[in-house]
Design brief:
Largest sheet: 9 strands, mixed
CATH topology: Cathepsin D, subunit A, domain 1
Strand order of the largest sheet: 2-3-10-4-9-8-7-6-5
Strand content: over 45%
Distance between the termini: 18 Å
CATH superfamily: Acid Proteases
Shape: globular
Length: about 140
């Protein structure tokens, strides 16, 4: 699949039909803007509950999500500082394609795109054509 510098993505298990994602081959992992991140235990498993704010510059909506906690990873942020981030694993939909990705949860409120699609998520799934955007259209969740 050929994707552009930005794409519409769906995160169906998080209840999000579409959000804009910035494609970043320089970033190793995916990042999703999240706030009110709260870990909890359910049936002996570690989970995390969080809020995703949709819209830029001012959030026009928000979605409360929860997912099984995959890991807590040390990630270098855009400022070059290392920070610990909660990581979840969830399906992503781009165009007609669907596969599992690891996503770190972080504060991206000052970023134009609420999600960053890193190179690990694209490996074996997509090639990037950086001169174009939104080549795959809206995610087909059916």
């Amino acid at each position: 699949m050929i994707i552009g510098a930005c794409e519409w993505v769906g995160l169906p298990e998080l209840g999000m039909d579409r959000l804009r994602a910035r494609v970043d081959t320089g970033a190793k992992s995916c990042a999703l803007h999240a706030s009110d991140i709260t870990p909890f235990v359910e049936n002996g498993e570690d989970w995390v509950r969080f809020r995703v704010h949709i819209g830029y510059p001012a959030p026009r909506d928000w979605q409360t999500c929860q997912a099984r906690l995959g890991d807590i990873r040390q990630v270098r942020n855009t400022g070059g500082e290392v920070e610990a981030r909660y990581t979840i694993r969830t399906p992503i939909v781009i165009g007609h394609a669907r596969w599992e990705v690891d996503i770190t949860l972080t504060n991206r409120e000052r970023m134009r795109y609420r999600m960053l699609l890193g190179r690990n998520a694209m490996k074996n799934h997509a090639l990037v054509y950086p001169a174009r955007t939104f080549l795959q259209g809206r995610p087909r969740l059916d």
